[in-house]
User: What shape does this take?
Amino acid sequence: MTKPEMLRSIASKTKFRQTDIAAVIDALRETIIEALNNDEEIRPFEGLVFTPFVMEAREVKSVRDGEIIHVPAKKTAKAHVTRRFRDLIK
Assistant: This one.
């Protein structure tokens, strides 16, 4: 489902306009990113958990020529869907 499709679906289930829903979704995205940048775990709604995660620096081998390449540490996030949420999907 694309964002425009999601906006139409939410608008049809609520009394809100698509532009208002889009503003809320964009604000939610920004809030999640801010929380992760502050090393906070965030649960935007029941069943979904975003956790900040640091991938350690590592050495990898290039598939092209076999050369060893250094990959620096990188801050990222993990998303986890809870069992309770997965059980709702039929």
Remarks:
- The mean pLDDT is 94.
